[in-house]
Design goal:
This protein is mainly α and 700 residues long. It has helices at residues 2-10, 14-49, 60-79, 86-99, 103-116, 123-136, 140-154, 158-173, 177-190, 194-210, 214-227, 232-248, 252-265, 272-285, 289-302, 307-323, 326-339, 346-377, 381-389, 391-400, 428-449, 453-466, 473-484, 491-504, 509-518, 524-543, 547-560, 567-581, 585-598, 603-616, 628-638, 656-669, 675-678. The chain is 72% helix and 0% strand. The N and C termini lie far apart (111 Å).
């Protein structure tokens, strides 16, 4: 007993020891569980850092670690619901779900922590994570409200700075780039976390790129690279985007210096081919096409089956396309898929390849139809049949015609109809109709697939000038008006085309559309009366060669509908017939004067006004030779003192002289090539007069 007494004096009572051991054992249990959970979570985080891209989904190994961490943390919550690590466990589970991209589950865990443990020191972090989760769920309003609550709660500090970064992310995804840039810049100046600060400057640079402020973008990317030290991937991306921004800002030499320095600094980086690709892009931007081709080829040979090699094939396709070598262009576009089915250039490459194929086939069809129509109009029916069957001749002709120089990035599905029956037709009218139809398709290809409004205009002009009797003429004219648009420099020209369209094809859908655009009344009576009278006049003038009858029909139309939108054109036609067909200058002058008096603001009045003024000018008293006044008046009554207008009147009331002059005005308004190039430039698509130059691209 004594010994026991001594022992009892020296050590605590057995009950107290047991109780203490039990407490320590319970605490150590849930601490070890949480410790192991965090260890597994960190292992998953390391795998996340090794992903090839920020947008990549987590791999199976990473997901397994997240699942294991979720399982252990959930066990802690189940077995120890009152432990000090409950809020930590909830936050960790939410983060695991977030990285697994199971955002609704993550959202519930973050809300659970904020609601059940409002006094926890982890609530600000949970609010940040909740805002990030809502952003991924596209709930921008919910994310913004959460961040505002965080700012109101914390006032200042790192959590507030990160909240501003996330506010920038909300505005960025809404495409409110100016507001986003303000938030990113404010966050970047104050953030203590170097990685997030660098990411803020990266996003600031992206905002500036979207706003086309490439100098500011370069500055932001440079700051992003300077802010980060340990993250090699982020530093690489910041430097690369800095070089690209310099290139876009036309600082090509500075961009090349940066890129060449990256070749040495990041010689073993997995994304090094992207640097080589940008070096080739700089060479191309400098006009060093041969150098760029060698650099693109080197990327293809040394980095096969990569997105960089796919982009190099696409760039080569553009180069060959711009040089007119469509076969090689199509071959390179087709190689994009072989290199990388994930390439961002794949869809565009396929569209361009298809567009080139459609273009070649359609040009061949147009060439065959043009040759066949020429043979038919010359009476060579047998030759026309041989041309229809001779596909090689069609290909040869299409190769001789001038190719387009550029096909746009955004392509539209266009598969030209290869007309089989019409290619063997002996009827010139059918062949002309099919030719006009295919020229319309070719114009649409130029306009919508190739982004070549100038070339589209040429095809449309051909249709309504040379094939006005076809059903496709009004479509061509309306499309011309569409291309000219509302630009001040082309507004008058557009309205002139719409006036002719409304007057000559008023009963067609395009004619009715022209009337609406011109604000003209479109009555059923007018639309029905116009074709009957004016078609009869046309028939008498051109087919029956009876200009007197044509004049009477035109005058009848003017008597019946003096307020018609077609009246000015019709009165002009009357004067023209008197002047050119009937050689009655007195009646012609009277018609022109009436045109000026009745429709002073019409395009036809503006056209004839100088002629009338020139005729009437000699009638004024001459102080030097008063004796000549009477003789001048006599000459005025017999014949105008101006050179005769030799331009013919067109068929189908299209007033070819007027339209040819409009076309010449249109071409004069288009940008003409330098004088030293005009002599060598040839038009292979159509036979033009020697002094007529094809239209150059309009500036829209």
């Amino acid at each position: 007993m004594k010994r026991y007494h001594l022992f009892h004096k020296k050590f605590p009572a057995p009950a107290a020891v047991v109780a203490a051991l039990l407490i320590l054992q319970g605490c150590g249990g849930y601490y070890n569980t949480f410790y192991n959970t965090k260890k597994i979570y960190k292992e998953a985080a390391e795998e996340r850092k090794r992903r090839t891209g920020a947008g990549d989904r987590p791999g199976s190994g990473e997901i397994q670690k997240y699942d294991k961490a979720i399982e252990k943390a959930s066990k802690l919550l189940q077995l120890h619901p009152k432990s000090r690590y409950v809020d930590d466990a909830l936050l960790l589970i939410g983060e695991c779900f977030f990285y697994k991209q199971e955002y609704l589950k993550a959202q519930r865990k973050f809300q659970e922590l904020i609601t059940l443990y409002p006094k926890s020191g982890l609530v600000p972090r949970a609010q940040l994570w909740l805002a990030k989760t809502n952003i991924e769920l596209n709930d921008y309003a919910g994310a913004e409200n959460t961040l505002k609550e965080l700012e109101a709660r914390e006032k200042k500090g790192e959590m507030v700075n990160q909240a501003r970064y996330l506010l920038g992310e909300i505005y960025f995804r809404r495409k409110e780039y100016i507001q986003a840039a303000k938030e990113y810049e404010a966050a970047g100046r104050k953030l203590g976390d170097a990685k997030i600060r660098s990411e803020a400057y990266m996003r600031l640079g992206e905002c500036c790129v979207e706003l086309k402020q490439f100098d500011l973008a370069a500055n932001a990317f440079h700051r992003a690279g300077s802010a980060i030290k340990n993250d090699i991937n982020l530093k690489f991306e910041a430097r690369l985007q800095y070089a690209i921004a310099l290139k876009n800002h036309q600082k090509l030499n500075q961009s090349l210096n940066t890129l060449n320095a990256m070749l040495k600094e990041f010689s073993t980086h997995r994304d090094l081919p992207r640097v080589k690709l940008e070096i080739a892009e700089c060479s191309r931007a400098q006009g060093k096409i041969e150098t760029a081709v060698k650099q693109y080829t080197g990327i293809i040979e040394n980095h096969q089956r990569t997105e960089a090699s796919a982009a190099a094939f696409f760039a080569l396709g553009e180069i060959y396309e711009n040089s007119g070598d469509f076969a090689k262009a199509k071959e390179n576009y087709d190689n994009v898929r072989r290199e990388s089915s994930r390439s961002e250039k794949l869809t565009e490459a396929e569209q361009r390849s298809k567009a080139i194929g459609s273009f070649i086939k359609l040009k061949e069809t147009v060439a065959i139809l043009e040759r066949q129509l020429t043979a038919l109009e010359s009476g060579k029916v047998g030759a026309a049949r041989r041309l229809a069957d001779n596909d090689d001749d069609g290909k040869k002709l299409s190769e001789e015609r001038r190719p387009i120089s550029r096909i746009p990035r955004r392509a539209k599905n266009a598969s030209p109809e290869m007309i089989s029956g019409s290619l063997a037709s002996k009827d010139p009218e059918k062949v002309a109709a099919e030719l006009a139809k295919n020229k319309i398709l070719l114009a649409e290809l130029f306009l919508f697939n190739f982004n070549r409004p100038d070339s589209a205009m040429r095809e449309y002009l051909d249709v309504f000038e040379f094939y006005p009797q076809t059903e496709y003429a009004p479509q061509a004219m309306y499309s011309l008006a569409y291309i000219l648009g509302d630009a001040p420099a082309t507004l008058a020209m557009r309205d002139s085309i719409l006036q002719v369209l409304a007057g000559n094809y008023g009963g067609t859908p395009q004619g009715l559309g022209a009337k609406r655009r011109l604000g003209q009344a479109d009555t059923l009576t007018a639309s029905r009366a116009l074709p009957a009278l004016l078609r009869q006049a046309e028939e008498n003038l051109f087919k029956q060669k009876n200009p007197e009858r044509a004049v009477r029909l035109y005058q009848e139309f003017l008597q019946r509908q003096p307020d018609s939108p077609y009246a000015a054109q019709t009165l002009y036609a009357v004067g023209w017939i008197y002047e050119h067909e009937l050689s009655n200058n007195k009646q012609a002058l009277a018609a022109y004067k009436k045109l000026i008096e009745t429709y002073p603001n019409s395009p036809m009045a503006r056209r004839v006004r100088p002629k009338v003024t020139a005729v009437e000018q000699p009638a004024k008293p001459n102080p030097v030779a008063p004796d000549t006044v009477a003789s001048a008046e006599t000459e005025k009554q017999t014949e105008p003192e101006e050179a005769e207008d030799e331009t013919p009147l067109p068929s189908r009331l299209n007033y070819q002289q007027m339209e040819q002059e409009r076309r010449q005005q249109m071409e004069e308004k288009l940008k003409k090539p330098p004088k030293d190039k005009e002599k060598n430039k040839k038009d292979d698509d159509e036979e033009e007069e020697e002094d007529e130059e094809p239209p150059e691209p309009l500036r829209f």
